[in-house]
Design the sequence.
């Protein structure tokens, strides 16, 4: 084996100042990069057909954007893969897919990928290949159902701006993609909320801790998730708006393990965990919308958490209320109180 065995440096930081501290920890590529001598090929698409993030902005047209620099560094330091960076998504053709093991998106808007080529991409993924999405990969092809159904979400605002340090709960502290994060952690970054999101389709890894967040919302906001598509795998993290995030060793470690997971070099569950999400939705509503009744409402939803059908129904009602449809806040509170 070309690379000597090294152990993964595990960084557990629980304070809100995580971002600053994490930058002091050198990036460690971790476990041996190559599997039986194979070097993988990743296409990293950073085209913007909508809002253009600083992290994908090539200040020098002949150079790379901050996110591209970071992924290129990860590829070199891990030895795991070669990365080709492009800002022209039309490069994603059936012929190109034959060369690739994974495709990574940091994109916005309606990319120049024909429906036929996207179908070829879906079939390629289901055959056992890999997809990675970062930040605005969920602000891509907003009206194109095959894409948003695959990645499982469409941008619906970002109440948590780029200057806010957002506390998060790690629902899968033992999962290979997140065990370096600890059970609770924080990132200073912009966080999306979503529409076209199905809690039954994905396994959420971590989400906003609404009880501790400065900006609060009475609903669950997932931040990272995984799923399988046929024999293929998808890893998504909403982190990555800020250029500084891409320079953080902790984020690079998180991204590398996500890449290793989608390439099936690491194991970790992908089965959807809707029950976790139903409970988080109910908890956020109780904590934020319940005001002086919050503790009593929380106790009710905790006690009812094993009634999956009721929790799923409550999730949908809270989601409808979020979209300014029936039922009202008071009607939802009354239903919880009766449980």
Sequence:
């Amino acid at each position: 084996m070309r690379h000597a065995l090294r152990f993964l440096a595990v960084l557990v930081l629980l304070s809100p100042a995580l971002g600053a501290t994490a930058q002091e920890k050198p990036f460690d590529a971790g476990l041996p990069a190559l599997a039986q001598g194979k070097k993988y090929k990743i296409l990293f698409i950073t085209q913007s057909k909508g809002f253009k993030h600083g992290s994908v902005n090539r200040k020098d047209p002949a150079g790379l954007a901050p996110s591209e620099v970071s992924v290129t560094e990860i590829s070199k330091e891990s030895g795991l893969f070669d990365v080709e960076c492009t800002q022209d998504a039309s490069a994603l053709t059936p012929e190109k897919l034959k060369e690739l093991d994974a495709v990574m998106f940091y994109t916005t808007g309606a990319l120049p990928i024909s429906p036929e080529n996207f179908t070829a991409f879906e079939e390629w993924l289901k055959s056992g290949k890999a997809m990675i999405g970062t930040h605005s990969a969920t602000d891509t092809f907003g009206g194109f159902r095959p894409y948003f159904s695959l990645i499982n979400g469409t941008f619906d605002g970002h109440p948590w701006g780029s200057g806010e340090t957002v506390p998060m709960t790690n629902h899968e502290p033992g999962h290979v993609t997140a065990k370096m994060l600890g059970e609770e952690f924080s990132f200073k970054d912009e966080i999306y909320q979503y529409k076209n999101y199905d809690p039954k389709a994905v396994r959420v890894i971590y989400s906003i801790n609404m009880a501790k967040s400065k900006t609060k919302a009475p609903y669950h906001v997932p931040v990272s998730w995984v799923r399988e598509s046929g024999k293929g795998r998808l890893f998504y993290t909403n982190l990555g708006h800020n250029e500084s995030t891409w320079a953080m060793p902790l984020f690079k470690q998180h991204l590398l393990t996500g890449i290793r997971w989608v390439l099936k070099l690491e194991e970790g569950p992908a089965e959807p965990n809707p029950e976790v999400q139903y409970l988080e939705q109910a908890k956020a509503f109780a904590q934020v919308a319940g005001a002086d009744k919050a503790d009593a409402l929380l106790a009710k939803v905790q006690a009812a958490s094993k009634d999956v059908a009721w929790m799923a129904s409550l999730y949908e009602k809270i989601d409808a209320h979020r979209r300014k449809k029936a039922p009202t806040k008071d009607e939802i509170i009354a239903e919880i109180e009766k449980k």
Q: What stands out?
A: The radius of gyration is 20 Å. The chain is about 35% helix and 15% strand. Residues 1-24, 31-35 have pLDDT under 50 and may be disordered.
